[in-house]
Amino acid sequence: MQSVARQARCASHLGTAVQFRIAATSPRIQWQCQRRNASYYNPLQWIQEKFAPKPRKADSAEEKKRSEQEKQGQQSVFEAAVSHEKRPKTKSTETAPTVVKKKATEHKYSTANFKISHRKLNMIGRQISGKPIDHAIVQMQFSEKRATSRIKSMLATAKLHATAYKNMDPSKLIVSEAWVTKGPKQLKRLEPRGRGKFGIRVHPDSRMHVILREGKTFEQLKKEQRERRLRRIVSAGLVREDVPLRNPARTWQW
To answer: Which residues lie within the region annotated Disordered (predicted)?
Structure first.
C-alpha cells in the first residue's frame, strides 16, 4: 500500500499521467492522485486553446455553387439578397471628392475688452496700421508699452486663423485696417477729495479690431519706392532728355 502511494507521489511530481487499476488501489489513493495532478492544471492554457484563432475552413460545395450561380445570374431575387447580406463588406475604391477651400479676401479679428484707455490703445493701432503682419508683430514685440503684449498675441492668432481657415497667403498679409472701440461699460467709482468733497473716477475699457488683407509685402514696397526715386533723377544736361523741368526758372530775370 505504501509502495503504491509512493509511486503515485513520484509520478505526480514528474507530471506523468499514471493509471491504476481499480482493484489494486483504494479510493483514498485515487483522490490523492487527482489532487496532485490538479495542481498542474493551467487555466491560461485552457483560455489560449479555447479562444485561439483557428484556420479558416474551405468553402463548401454549396457555397461554391451559389457563387457560380451569382456570376451567371441564375439566382432568384431573394436568394441573391440573402447571399449579398452574408457577404463581407469591402471598402469602396472610389476616392472622396476633394474639397477646395475658398480663398477669402479679408479676415477680421479683435481682442477682448481689457483695462486701458481708448486714447492710449489708439496710438498702438496707428503704429501697426498699413504694415505687413510680420513687421507689425515685431513692432509690438520690442515696444515698451504695457498693452503691446496682448496686441502681439492677437496679431499672431489672426495670422494663424487667416492662413488655416481662409487659405490666405501669410507672406502677403498686411494690417489693412485697425481701429479701437470703447467697452460696453465704463466703470465709475467715487474718488474722495479735500474738504469733504468727492469726484467721479472712470475706469475705462477698450478693445482693438484689425482687418487682414493680402497686399504688397515690405520688400515690394521698398522696391517700388527705390524705383520711384530713381525715376526722379535727371541727368545734368549731357544727354538730351524729353523730360519736363523739375524747377523751371522764371521767364524774366533782371
So the answer is: 51-103
Q: Which domains does the chain have, with CATH numbers?
A: 106-220 (3.90.470.10)
DSSP the chain: -HHHHHHHHHHHHHT------TTTS-HHHHHHHHHHHHTT--HHHHHHHHHS--PPPPP-HHHHHHHHHHHHT-S-HHHHHHHHHHSPP----PPPPPPPPPPPSEEEEEPPPEES-HHHHHHHHHHHTTSBHHHHHHHHHS---TTHHHHHHHHHHHHHHHHHHS---GGGEEEEEEEEEE-S--EEEEEE-GGG-EEEEEE-EEEEEEEEEE---HHHHHHHHHHHHHHT----SSS------SSPPPS---
CB 172 within 8 A of CB 187: no
**CA 176/CA 132 separation, integer angstroms:** 9
pLDDT at 22: 44
Give 18-50 pLDDT, tens digit per residue.
444 444 456 666 666 665 555 556 777 888 787
* CB atoms closer than 10 angstroms to residue 85: 8
Residue 151 above 70 pLDDT?
A: yes
Mean pLDDT throughout 71-86?
58
